Amino acid sequence: MNESFLTNTSTEGLQPLGTAPQRSYELVSDTVREACGEAAAALFAEPVPTQYGDRFDWYATVDGQAVPLAALEDPEPVREVLAGLVAKIKDLADELMASKLAEKQRLGEALANALEIPDEDAIFVIQGADGGAPQPVLVNWAWTKDAQVAVRGVLTGMDTRAPAQRPGYVPPPAAAAAMPLAAGAGTAAVAGVSAIWWWLVWLGWLLLALLIAAVIYLMIEPCALRISWLPNTCEQVEEIPDTLYEERLLLEDQITQVQKEIHIKDRLCQPDFALLPIPDPDAVVPPETGVQPSLPIDPEVDDRADRAGAERGDLSFTLIWEGSDDLDLHTTCPAGDTLFFLDKVQCNGEMDLDMNGFQVVPDPVENTYFTDPLPGDYRVRVHLYRQRDGNAPRSFTLQIREGDRVTTQKGTVSVGAENWQYTYRYGGK
After folding, report:
1. DSSP states along 342-395
2. Region of poorest pLDDT, from 273-282, 337-346, 415-424
3. What domain of life does the UniProt record list for this protein's source (predicted)?
């Protein structure tokens, strides 16, 4: 992939949108590339953080001389190209967020956040060497200004489509017929504004005075705050002796005595325990293991993974199946972090193959590998994300490779039973 340096920006005065996995360049660019094409994916520059993480170097994925949009003499052609690309991505984001699946909703939110920039200074233009169409490129995407009310919609406001064609459009109520009448009535109302205004001012002061008087009256009403030269009408309250105090003390003493008797009787009631037999010291107890018996090795797993360019680590999990259904591989390491298509790098591991999401292939395979993995239990979940080939159950093969040791498991998922789980115990090197 060719890369062209665009600029270096600071995060000072900016705030990010969404979570860190949602701002993943690979997630956004790969999703847009599969659904909207290469030109839409090239809209997003790749961020490379500096040593301290407070600045970013931005690189475009196309060759050519990059200039800011504001530096162009005639930016309108570029704005039209940018508006078309933004409209495609916005439609894709709205479609994903309308899904009932939480994972698709998070993906749609990530694309919607990626279309937000602080201002038009984040828009660059690359003119190809062959004189082709200009390619707009965004920096500081998924970031807005750190203000009390951040301005959003810098890019979506460039959508040149008619309002009725935009997603989520609601027609406004018809109020144009009342415009001439309101214009004529406004002139007549100006003449009486002055007199009505003074009446409202005096009425406001009167209400405030009445409110203050009511508050003062309520404050001085108790006897302790009554003014000395006013008649005191507070009735004398006769003190009633607390005759129940002694009875309460007597009841507390009786309760304490009963608790002591219960404690003494409880100590006297000791059960007899039968002596348990002493275990034979020569008996060998087999160690517990979390690894289930393995099935015979399926050579198709390695063949398909090698053709797709899968990486091999100290511990690898490879999933294959047949057909156009979308099966997802989820791998949870002993630290509790889960690797899947929205979070591909965790816990010294990486998910390098993810297929049949948007683009269907005839021989799908997914792969996750770990370098220097943590010892412990690795929980594997196979999830039926989308079923395209009817309603029949979908069979799959899972291969776990630990050095020269290979474990093979097979299973099925279907509508109503979308998840299959398996636990593999890794003992370490």
Report:
1. TB-EETTEEEEE--SSSS--SS-EEEEEESSPPSEEEEEEEEEEE--STTS-EE
2. 273-282
3. Bacteria
Q: Which residues contact 169 (CB under 8 A, 6 or more apart)?
A: 163
374-409: b or e for each residue (b if 16 or more CB lie within 10 Å)? beeebbbbbbbbebeeeeeebebbbbbbbeeebbbb
CB atoms under 10 Å from CB of 353, counted, come to 20
In order of 294, 410, 419, the CA distances from 422 in angstroms are: 12, 10, 10
Q: What is the mean pLDDT of the chain?
A: 82
Q: What is the pLDDT of residues 259-318, one digit of tens each?
A: 888 878 777 765 554 544 555 545 444 444 344 577 888 899 999 999 999 999 999 999
* Amino acid residing at 412: T
Sorted by where each begins, the domain ranges of the chain are 4-165, 299-426
Cα(383)–Cα(385) distance, integer angstroms: 6
Residue 286: burial class (beta carbons within 10 Å; 0-12, 13-18, 19+) = exposed
Structure tokens at 341: 């298509």
What the block records as the tokens of 16 is: 């990010």
The predicted pLDDT at position 163 comes to 53
